[in-house]
Amino acid sequence: xxxxxxxxxxxxxxxxAQHQRLGAEIAEHDRRYHGEDAPTISDAAYDExxxxxxxxxxxxxxxxxxxxxxxxxxxxxxxxFAKVRxxxxxxxxxxxxxxxxxxxxxxxxxRFLGMPVDxxxxxxxxxxxDGLSCNLRYExxxxxxxxxxxxGFEGEDVTANVRTIRAIPNRLDGAPRIxxxxxxxxxxxxxxxxxxxxxxxxxxxxxxxxxxxxxxxxRQLDPRIxxxxxxxxxxxxxxxxxxxxxTTQLGAIHAMxxxxxxxxxxxxxxxxxxxxxxxxxxxxxxxxxxGYDIDGVVYKVDDLALQQRLGFVSxxxxxxxAHKFPAERATTVLxxxxxxxxxxxxxxxxxxLKPVTVGGVVVQNATLHNEDEIARKDVRxxxxxxxxxxxxxxxxxxxVVLDKRPAGAEPYVFPHVCPVCGSAxxxxxxxxxxxxxxxxxxxxxxxxxxxxxxxxxxxxxxxxFDIEGLGDKQIELFFKEGLIRTPADIFTLSARxxxxxxxxxxxxxxxxxxxxxxxDAIDARRTIALNRFLFALGIRHVGETNARRLARHYGEWGxxxxxxxxxxxxxxxxxxxxxxxxVAETIADFxxxxxxxxxxxxxxxxxxxxxMAAIAAGHPLAGKTIVFTGSLxxxxxxxxxxxxERLGAKVSGSISAKTxxxxxxxxxxxxxTTAREHGVETIDEEEWIRRSAAG
Length: 695
Ligand code: IVH
Description:
Blueprint: H1 12-35, H2 43-59, E1 83-85, E2 95-96, H3 100-113, E3 123-129, E4 132-139, E5 142-148, E6 154-156, H4 159-162, E7 178-186, H5 189-201, H6 210-218, H7 223-227, E8 232-241, H8 249-259, E9 268-270, H9 273-286, E10 294-301, H10 304-310, E11 312-313, E12 316-317, E13 320-324, E14 329-341, E15 347-358, E16 361-367, H11 371-377, E17 384-388, E18 396-400, E19 425-429, E20 436-442, H12 449-460, H13 472-480, H14 487-491, H15 493-496, H16 512-523, E21 527-529, H17 530-536, H18 544-554, H19 557-565, H20 569-574, H21 581-592, H22 594-604, E22 608-610, E23 625-629, H23 637-646, E24 650-652, E25 661-664, H24 670-678, E26 681-683, H25 685-693
Parallel strand pairs: 2-13, 21-22, 23-24, 23-25, 25-26
Antiparallel strand pairs: 1-6, 3-9, 3-10, 4-5, 4-7, 7-8, 10-13, 11-12, 14-15, 14-17, 15-16, 17-18, 19-20
Helix pairs in contact: 1-2, 17-18
The protein binds 2-(butylsulfanyl)adenosine.
């Protein structure tokens, strides 16, 4: 922040000029954000512009004329769609950032209403969904018009598109004759990632975040495209209504739920600023697990009669405020691009950044996705870039700030050899389509140290051999020291310890206990279920699901290995339910490789692979897709998962139309609502134990 020297208060003329400049800047960013779904600055930077703008108006009220950006919301509607004038304007929310401002907000409301400072004042608190707001007009229960917010007064008619969104009912049950529901259209992370991957495969542009994807999907001129995009919706407000339908904010939310509209399950009634903050913390803590983007918490005076009395000031209501999370986007300098080599040889470009705080976390690395993405964004070393960190995911580079490109910055040339082993790195051509894979891969396989180390990490990981104490750091160290080169070496580690070199317990960071714990942990995993074993091998395309399919089909390691080594292996494997030709071919290639066979022979001397006979094919849960959510009290999540797998069920992390059963423990949040939305059967832990024991 820059401080003005004391005594030099700006004049009205100076402030007017600055006000105009900031206003133009804000208008341009509004246009990019709302009109093009392509913002070019971080939300934090935008909020800062707004703050400076409002501060000028506070100092010189004459600046706040009818043209003030504070009286406008969003951008004027684009030309593609018919315009709709909102019966009741769709306004915006004021923002607060600091904890103290929650108390200030409550005090402001009480003061305005002439209430004593300690008078009770209930507030509804709910997540602020990062999507795009929409007005849904129902007449006699039928959806007659859907419109985007636009500039707050006039939006775009997106009725045809909204009718294709399954989450939005075309009919309401029991709503007033005229009822305008307002809420946020958004896209869930899982859908966003899957669709973006599909876009990339089809050579179409990918979207930077779910919000932009949702906006782009809603603004399709062809409703069939919108129909193919899984958009979701939460109702949290209303516009014109023919008769009162609730007396409180929470009552209104419940009423909308009864009418058939999806509402957010994290909506709570808070009686004090302390409770509001506590709920803010709860939502913040849940943020990464929600499966969709939120950017803060909205507090609303619960009593609708009080809301009415409080009314609006310029573009936002006095009765509500958005408590934003710390910014999750920031700009910084790209100092270099490092190419990492993964287990399957994929070369992944990682941005090395000048450290920057994004959403309270210092970020130094960010993904650049792949070669094509670098080219598409024209990212160059030395560029100033916009970094985004959403929830738990790896930070990513959204774009380059071109104005700040240093003179002489050269386009980035992606390497064509593996930076670790020097083997050629190629982009495979899809034989059918003739399209090159987006991923460039090292062809060095086992001679490539990077692939070997990553393979070992995968082998020991949680859903594979799950060896406690043998994490990424230890594996890297043991590999570097030559102690572990192939999976079999893990199991001979204790027998070789101290022979010809310093024993492990004398290594820095290792003690007597930790070494003996490590050896115990390794021994505990000498027996492994076939599906886990197949997954552990790290064969490309053989993830948990395919490993389970193969394990179920072949039942035991011997039969599987024989099939995979047969001359017609690809054909034979391709006949397994759910295994496609590409997967079958990859597995056949893996087993045709002499070096892999040698690695397996050595490994089989050390371990036992359990046949799947233990899996009762006839169990009622066999073949079912189960989701666990909330906390379990009698067993850990991993235990429950293993149990389900043993019974032949599939465990999934997210609820979809394919889910058969949800096991919900205390604290199950949004997944329960999703389950209800999908009409999925939900049971508690006790019932789970009963059912898994039966049959
Ligand atoms: S209430 C008159 N509640 O945030 C106030 N808005 O920055 C109406 N938003 O335009 C808005 N989640 O697009 C409200 N739970 C929520 C919200 C929410 C997201 C959006 C909405 C609004 C913008 C204001």
